[in-house]
Amino acid sequence: MDGFWPTFMRRKPTPPRLVERLAGKPAQEFFNPRTVIIPLQETVQTVFGCSVKARDEVKAGQKICEKGTSPYALAVHASISGTIREIDSFFHPNGCYGTGVLIEADGREEPCQKISAPTGSEANMDTLLQAGIPLEYEALAEGKVETLLVNGTEFEPYLNVKHQIIEEQAAEVIGGVRALMRIFSVSKAAVVVERKQRKAIQALEKCIAGPQDITVVPSLKSYPPTAERVVIGEILKKGNGKTEGEVLPVDLAFLPAVYEAVQDGMPFVERMITVAGSGVPDPRNLKVRIGTTFDEIIVHCGANPEGVTQIVMGGGLMGISQPTGQVPVTQTTPGILALVTIGLTHGRQSRMYEEGPCVRCAKCVDVCPVSIVPTTIAAYCRKGRFEAAEESGLSVCVDCGLCSYVCPARIPLAQILKEARSRNALRAPANQSSGNNEECQTV
Amino acid sequence: MKSLLVYVSKTGNTEKVARRVAKGLGDGTDVVRLDLSPEGVLKNYQPGFTLDAGSYDLCCLGAWVMVMKVHPFMAAFIRQIKNLEGKKVAVFLTGGATFSRGHAYEDVIHLLGEKKADLIGFSYTTTLLGLTMTRKKLDRAEEFGREMKRKMEEAA
After folding, report:
1. How far is CA A74 from CA A66, A134, A334, B83, in A?
2. Nearest CB to B42: which of A278, A347, A349?
3. Stated pTM of the model
């Protein structure tokens, strides 16, 4: 039927938004998981120093580890109180194995321990490090940053978590931005919100009242969280005149945590995620502890774990499919998709759903937010000509996944590009490995 | 008798037929609409969806005919459903052209033969742009459902 209608009536270049079903429902809480896995490493290269051992008793909010290198070593906290069963290698939702701590809950619901760092008006960078908020401290501490950019647009069709955070915690978001601006002496900040989300914009503007140091920029489009450069180019130049100085993107989900750390000295041990997909009876937003396994969350949402055939970290476009359900929620996990799938590409019957040759329709070129030619780059990557692919702009790709979505020949363009990029990152010399780490954090 | 009714529908004709067949089958029928995206992901939550036919007595499969074959979604479903060996299966198809009936029937025989399932009933409803979906045809679909139920009761 896709070919029956004229071109402008066919499938839209972006997937349909499924967030309307979630709008208006308050977020629920799920704070008593049976076990949590606290990941200590994002990638294999992450340095960490663990201060606990197996069979130790820990309390919620207790500092168990420091990761990264001094002076920007981040604290890692136990998110529930209980006993440490083992410290072992666990699967990280970013797609690699890393050391983690498995904690078994003891059922006591105690308030979170506070961090040992100055709070309130004396708060400094140490407060944020001790609270374990993974910001880009090197760039912030240099003092060159002039504008903080918060991307409040939700790019993923299934997820609604950013809108929910803004609507429910507008004061915390603004408080977090103000705290960051004060600590790192940044003069301006901009929050980009979709124009459709009137409630979110109103809530933010209500909280900003007073000094106009934070701008709320309504945008028509939604931007993927990795495409901050596009946002800076398209939005800030239009909205604020010419931008001078450096612009630093900050993840929206960290801002309430920043506010709580600065105000009350609370560690970053909980965040809001969206649970959606065809395996879940009713999609919802959940506040969960860091480290709760996907399986437990899906079962909590009423899904049948045997019926769910695919679990995805993130949304439908940029998410990473997980091999098992025993994967922890990390500080950068925006949501979980529990999907029921049927393999269509087996056998002669389903040949029309298999990959075909590129038909040169250039739909992927039209939708690409960073204006590269995915099909050419994918062809180079398939031939193993990674230098040529790099010259054609492979490193500019933001992994938004739209090219795969629109491709009528069903070529897995986004997958090929992502693979090639990770391959290039592995091959790159050591001085670029830090860039790779940052990328893992923002994904 | 517990029966599973799975159907694939694009414009709604097969859905109409499936509803009448389910009415004919009576209570204890789990109706599942196999609404897949081109990637093979179920679009909406279906409470009765299962890939295991073990707990059902009768599997009723409905699909529309595309290029004289069973729709790929249903074909993929038949290939992947477990415990279909020796199970009683009834198939109802809808299609625009009458003459594709024979081809589609052969395709059904081929697909179910691979699974060693027992085909106990087959019906084909001709539909063209939705206008020819008459009350008579729907009544016949309900009659088909009732017949399948009778056959199952006789076998029991």
Report:
1. 5, 7, 20, 52
2. A278
3. 0.87
